[in-house]
Amino acid sequence: MARKTHILVHYSDSISGDIRAFEKYHKEVHGWKHVGYNYVIPHDGSIENIIGETAEGIHAGIGNWNAYSIGICVVASKEQPPTRYQYRTLIYVLLMLMGRYGILAKNVLGHKETGRDTDCPGPIDMVALRKALEASTLPYKRFCQSLDGSLGS
Q1: Are 38 and 52 a contacting pair, CB within 8 Å?
Q2: What residues contact 15, with CB distance under 8 A and at least 6 apart?
Q3: Which residues contact 59 (CB under 8 A, 6 or more apart)?
Q4: In terms of pTM, does the model score above 0.70?
Q5: pLDDT tens digits, residue range 121-142?
């Protein structure tokens, strides 16, 4: 299994849905063995996971992106963008995964940033999201930098 080095953010381009609905669609329409995303964030801001974060998703579509990335889908559309609850959960999960796998904010990408011809993640502003993630990790980075040289002295 490849080491996870990236997180890809998707949107469903639908006004409703949950991980079970996407799993059914992915299996029946695409013939996939399981749901494509590692995580789904419905409108209420909860987090859903069936396949686990270490499983190889089927969400990127090109190259080896699926092998070394974790896919998160936010249930949203251009007409019904993510709620504040979904953004809170998205940032929480992203920070958790970044910490767990040592993934930098610059490696949190929107689906279209992989070179795929898509507008995904639609209404999610990836530049602003990465800035929020960077700002959230700054106190941790400063703390770690303050320890450099002081341990073992």
Answers
A1: yes
A2: 77, 79, 80
A3: 8, 10, 36, 37, 38, 66, 69, 71, 73, 111
A4: yes
A5: 999 999 999 999 998 876 666 6
